[in-house]
Amino acid sequence: MKNRILKKSFSLAIASIISISSGGLAYASNNINLNFNGQGYVPPSNTKVEDGHIMIPLKWIAEQLGAKVSWDNENKTVDIKVPESRILQSQINSFMYGLEPRTPKEAVDTWLKGVKSRSGSIQYAMLSTNLQEKTYDKFNEGYWNTGGSSPWIDDIVFLKEENINDAKVEYTIEYNLKSSAGIEGKGEKVITIEKNPEEYSSNWYITEIKSKENNCEMYTPAETIIK
Questions:
Q1: Whose CA is closest to 3, among 74, 79, 81, 71?
Q2: Which pLDDT belongs to residue 31?
Q3: What is the DSSP pairing of strand 204-212 with strand 182-195?
Q4: Which residues 6+ apart lie within 8 Å of 13 measured at CB?
Q5: pTM for the full predicted model
């Protein structure tokens, strides 16, 4: 019974979000598309146009925005809870701190893990403030997914490790670019890692990534392409 009331209540509790010229007609519309922050969505089948407005179930809209929706049958109340930005920020800060590398090699290995898994969040956490500023907009536009599904990097080999000084290390790596058809080519990067200069800090971060240009690989704004 509760589920029936819930569905009925949300069907009746519809939000007027867009004004259009419809001449006062009421009709169902199955070919309306919506964009939230640039991402396209197809609204539910019970979306309709009535009196110059597009009517969409409130529950559906709230859930697309990341809210949790529940129905209090006793008080006949719809409860919508949107994630608090402070809680989300604390979660992000905890994630970033937990990933802080304690050695130069750990910084490179973790960044490569992010590249292989196409995780912009992991890559971003390994970068210096300067490189983070360069990559933030691009990563955000791609919803923090980077690169393409093919080709991917594999068979990574560390060719060289050079200790520039006590707080700066440079690694040269080589890898294969693979697809379902096999090896598409080879890639090479020179990655510079520096120790955080802040007092009492022991973490390292990537300050420069020089990538040898090839036609198979996709790059991020954090990388400098070398021909």
A1: 71
A2: 67
A3: antiparallel
A4: 57, 58, 59, 78
A5: 0.65
Domains and CATH numbers, the chain: 101-225 (3.10.450.50)
Q: Are strands 53-57 and 68-72 parallel, antiparallel or unpaired?
A: unpaired
Return the SS3 of 65: coil
Range from 7-21, 103-117, 128-142 carrying the lowest mean pLDDT: 7-21
pLDDT band at 167 (very low <50, low <70, confident <90, very high): very high
SS3 58: helix
- Please name which of 218, 217, 221, 199 lies closest in space to residue 208, comparing C-alpha atoms: 221
Rounded Cα gap, residues 124 and 114, in angstroms:
9
Report residue 183 CA to chain centroid gap. Answer: 28
The whole-angstrom distance between residue 26's C-alpha and the CA centroid of its chain comes to 39
**Nearest alpha-carbon partner for 67 in 88, 53, 47:** 88
Task: Name every residue whose Cβ is closer than 8 Å to that of residue 32 and which is 6 or more positions away in sequence.
Answer: 42, 43, 47, 49, 54
Looking at residue 85, its pLDDT comes to 66
Task: Give tens-digit pLDDT for 69-78.
Answer: 888 888 889 8
Tokens at 212, concatenated: 């040898």
- What is the helix (H) or strand (E) element at residue 121, kind and residue range? helix 120-125
**Residue where the block lists tokens 């419809």:** 22
Question: Half-sphere exposure of residue 93, counting CA atoms within 13 Å on the CB side?
Answer: 6
- Strands 204-212 and 223-226, by their bridges, are parallel
Among residues of the chain, what percentage have pLDDT more than 70?
85
